[in-house]
Amino acid sequence: MADRSVRLKKRAEFLLVASRGRKVPSPGLVLQALERGDSDPARIGFTVTKKVGNAVVRNRTRRRLREAMRQVAHEAPLSGVDLVLIGRGGTRGRDFSALLGDLRRALRKAGVRGDS
C-alpha cells in the first residue's frame, strides 16, 4: 500500500468504483469496493468532502484513513480490487482502534477479505 502507483487518482476511477462497486457504510468511514478480476495489487483512493470541515480537518481525516488502511493491508495484503475510503465527520474524533475495526468489518462485509 505504501507505493503511490497503487492509488486511485483520477475522478473517472473514483466514479467507476462508486457506480459499479459495493458500498459499505460504518460509523468511522464509508468503503466502496469494486472487484477487478485480476491478481494485481489493490488500488486505493481516499476522499473527504467539504462537509467534514476545512482543509486542515479534511487532510487530517485523510491521513487517519491512509494509516488505518496501511495497517490493515499489512496484516493481509489485498489484491484484485479497487477501494475508495470516504471520510465522515466521525472519522476524525473516532478512537483509532475503533476506526481499524470499522475498516476490517467493512472489508469483510464488502467481500474483500474473509479473515478477522
Give the key terms.
21% strand; Ribosomal Protein S5, domain 2; 43% helix; tRNA processing; single chain; RNA-binding; alpha+beta; hydrolase; Ribsml_uS5_D2-typ_fold_subgr; 4 helices; 4-stranded mixed beta sheet; 116 residues; 4 strands
Put the structure in a nutshell.
This protein is an alpha+beta fold and 116 residues long.
- Pattern of helices and strands: HEEEHEHH
Largest sheet, if any? Answer: 4 strands, mixed
Q: What CATH architecture label applies?
A: 2-Layer Sandwich
Q: Please state how the strands of the largest beta sheet are arranged side by side.
A: 1-2-4-3
Provide the helix percentage.
Answer: 40-55%
Subunit arrangement of the protein:
single chain
Mind telling me the CATH class? Alpha Beta
| Uncertain parts | none
Strand coverage percent: 15-25%
Q: With helices defined by DSSP (H or I, 4 residues minimum), what is the helix count? A: 4
Query: How many E-type strands?
Result: 4
CATH fold description: Ribosomal Protein S5, domain 2
How many domains would you count in the coordinates?
1
**What coarse outline follows from CA principal-axis ratios?**
globular
Q: What is the C-alpha radius of gyration, as a whole number of Å? A: 13 Å
Structural class by helix and strand composition: alpha+beta
* Average of the residue pLDDT scores: 90
Gap from first CA to last CA: 19 Å
Topology:
Blueprint: H1 11-20, E1 22-25, E2 29-35, E3 43-48, H2 55-75, E4 81-87, H3 89-93, H4 96-109
Parallel strand pairs: 3-4
Antiparallel strand pairs: 1-2, 2-4
